[in-house]
Structure formats: C-alpha cells, structure tokens
Amino acid sequence: MGVSEQRALCFLEEKQAWVERARQRLMERRMATPAPKEVDVEALRRAAKADLPLRMERLAAQTGLRYTKLTIRATRTKWGSCSARNAISLSLYLMTLPEHLRDFVVLHELCHTVHHNHSERFHRLLDSLVGGREKELNRELRCYAIR
Ligand SMILES: [Zn+2]
User: What are φ and ψ of residue 82, in 5° steps?
Assistant: First the structure.
C-alpha cells in the first residue's frame, strides 16, 4: 500500500537477485565442504563416561529401580541391554541422542531389572515412568539410527 507497482516490482527483482546470489554462495560452500567425518568414537566414549553413570544413578534413585553394574560399550546394534543379574550395558552412541531420549533408553533398561522381557507389565511400568509417553518416545527414538 502506498508503493507504486513499479517500485514494488523493482523491489521484488532486487530481492530475487539477492536470493539467487545467496543460493549460489550456499551451493559453492556446500561443494567446498569435505564429506562429514566419521564419528569420533573416542570422543563419544569420553562423553559417555562423563554422562551415563550419573544419569543412570539419578534415574535409578528417582524410580527406586536397582541395577548391579553399568558397562558402557561401543554397541552399534542396540542402545542398551540388561542381563539376568540386572547388569546394564549402554551404548556410547547414546551420546548422539537428545537428552530426553537418552533418559528414555536408560529408563527402558531400568524397567528390565523388574521385568526381563517386553511383556505388557514391562510396558505399563515404563509408560508410567515417562508420563504415558512411551509410544511417542519409541516413535521418536526410531528416527535415530545408531551411527
Ligand atoms: Zn528392552
């Protein structure tokens, strides 16, 4: 409003040229960037050792679920596991997940200290610990592949 059609068109053309130049710059930059580096496993391991034991202790204390031992491994096939003796193993690749999903995996394994299976009762327990969001969190977790 209050701007002549001529000026409006001119303005659009200018913007279009600017967008085109920006797009060009982005493409060039993308081509100049080397392929993404392999994940630094040792850095992930250090991060995992600084994060997971405390996270595990905190969530165990909060829920009253008890585990006997925590091991951190470079497992690529699953985020975690729980033995018959309630020793929990967590993948250091958990550090590539957002924190709320890291908590969710830890809680999943802690629930296995009570139910060593994926029975209805297991899911009821886990669901109750995540405020009824188990399905939603599982869906979200599936979007992350272990890298
Ligand atoms: Zn499980």
Answer: -135, 125
CA–centroid distance, 78 to ligand 1, in Å, is 10
Has residue 36 got a pLDDT over 90? no
CB atoms within 10 A of CB 41: 12
Domain that holds residue 7: 1-33
Q: What's the structural domain count of the chain?
A: 2
Q: Which is nearest to 128 in space by CA: 67, 63, 66?
A: 63
Fill in the DSSP letter of residue 110.
Answer: H
The yes-or-no verdict on residue 118 having pLDDT over 90 is yes
Q: What is the CATH number of the domain that holds 123?
A: 3.30.2010.10
Instruction: Give 123 Cα–ligand 1 centroid separation in angstroms.
Output: 9
